Amino acid sequence: MVTDTAIFEAVGEVADPEVPVLTIADLGVLRGVRHEGDEVVVTITPTYSGCPAMDLIKHEVELTLDSLQLKGRVETVLSPAWTTDWMSDEGKAKLTEYGIAPPTGRRAVGGPVSLSLTIRCPLCGSPDTTELSRFGSTSCKSLWRCNSCREPFDHFKNL
Amino acid sequence: MSDLFIYTLRLGDDALIAAQRTAEWIAAAPQLEEDVALGNIGLDQLGQARSLLQYAGTVEGAGRTEDDLAYFRDERDFLNAQLTELPNGDFARSMAKLLYFATYQHLLYEELRSSSDETLAGVAGKAVKEVAYHVDHATQWVLRLGDGTEESHARMQAGLQEMWPYTAELFATDDLVQRLDAAVDPSTLEEEWLRRVTEVIDASTCERPTSAYQHSGGREGRHTEHFGYLLAELQHVARSHPGAKW
After folding, report:
1. Which residue of B has its CA nearest to A115?
2. How many angstroms away from the CA of B139 is the closest CA of chain A?
3. Number of folded domains in chain A?
4. A35, A3 in Cβ contact below 8 A?
5. Domain that holds residue A77
6. Domain MIP18 family-like: where (chain A) (predicted)?
7. Least confident of A94-103, B68-77, B135-144
8. What 3-state class would DSSP assign to B102?
9. Boundary residue ending a domain (A26, A50, A82)
10. Residue B219 confidence (pLDDT) above 60
């Protein structure tokens, strides 16, 4: 029998279709693997309620289970709610290399004061950057511009 | 129909109809970044609607899916507050609506996180973090437009005024929310909502509207004349091709 840990590692390799440099294990979208009798149950959680990538991720996990010749299903859970704190350090490093500024662990909204916090440019490292829009090309990102190298970049925003 | 089913429908319909209106801005917003922002906000609202309507279907136990509930109910079966169905109007009106609605949703979801119903608490725990960004977005626009030019100030003031008579309905209490242990009684949120909204309006140099008359009826399925048109657009593909898959 394939162990739950081995299955977790295998399905954890499924890439996020929106940010293909990250796996669902890096993101913390993969929550767990367990056996119910001879059936494998994989639980995943969306980054945002409306994340359109969830259907594809679910399908890819099912294909991975199939390739391991395992009978199983995928469950989507909402609680506990996903947070960027679950992103692995390795995932954050991969994001920076890919050109997306990783989450900083500090919320930009929701506190008593709405603050704009500086995000370092992932391309040249300059802290002199401007937020263009708090909403970017996908729900999980905001749009920034670097004032030093003038390049626009995405920031994986804190949630 | 159980109380929990009706309560979940109210929350789900609010989110669904808000999503539909927000999405109307896509490709029509004043700038590209705003298109993207409103697209994302609409997607959050739609995601919340899906979770809630799916759960409503489960609670009802009659085999209806989220799609059945969204596409195959008639006007009088929808329980959303009338504020959510109002036409977008100009951009300032839409931002006034978003400020009122998102501030309400934020307070509601904060409380609902500790609901005795685990699923509702889960949806709320997820949604509250998303809605914080919606409140922030609306706040920034209300400040910018209200404290902007003479023209933008006049439009912001008009938008705040026009949406105001639809806000009391969000906080209306009834037997159902008082009876249902899992529910948040929205009347308990009104004071804090008023405080937060007033703070933003004051800072924007606009006047906080007052209105003796307040509309109601959405929670009982009575809607404005605009709602039928919205549903026609939302539902016509699904109803023209029932059972279609893509």
Report:
1. B136
2. 10
3. 2
4. no
5. 4-82
6. 5-75
7. A94-103
8. helix
9. A82
10. yes
Residues 6+ apart with CB under 8 A from B2: B59, B60
- Give the 3-state secondary structure of residue B234: helix
Cα–Cα dist A11/A45, whole Å: 14
pLDDT at A18 > cutoff 90 = no
**What band does B29 get if pLDDT is binned at 50, 70 and 90?**
very high
**pTM of the entire structure?**
0.91
Instruction: Identify the structural domains of chain B with CATH numbers, from first to last.
Output: 3-211+219-240 (1.20.1260.10)
Measured between CA atoms, how close is B78 to chain A, in angstroms?
A: 21
- Predicted ipTM beyond 0.90: no
**Model pLDDT, residue A93:** 92
Do A10 and A78 fall within a single domain?
yes
| Burial class of residue B71, CB neighbours in 10 A (0-12, 13-18, 19+) | middle
* A44-94 tens-digit pLDDT: 999 888 888 899 999 999 999 999 999 999 999 988 888 888 999 999 999
Do A56 and A19 belong together in one domain? yes
Residues of A with CB under 8 A from a CB of B: 46, 48-52, 77-83, 107-110, 114, 132-139, 143, 159
Can you give the pLDDT at residue A110? 55
Beta-carbon contacts of B186 under 8 Å, excluding residues fewer than 6 positions away, are: B104, B108, B170, B171, B172, B173, B177
What would the pLDDT profile of B146-188 be if each residue is shown by its tens digit? Answer: 999 999 999 999 999 999 999 999 999 999 999 999 999 999 9
Among A48, A82, A116, which residue terminates a domain?
A82
Candidates B34, B36, B139; nearest CB to A137: B36
Same-domain check for residues A78 and A106: no
- The pLDDT score that the predictor gives to residue A137 is 83
* CATH of residue A37: 3.30.300.130
Q: Are residues A66 and A95 in the same domain?
A: no
A115 Cα distance to chain centroid: 24
Assess contact for B78 and B103: CB atoms under 8 A.
no
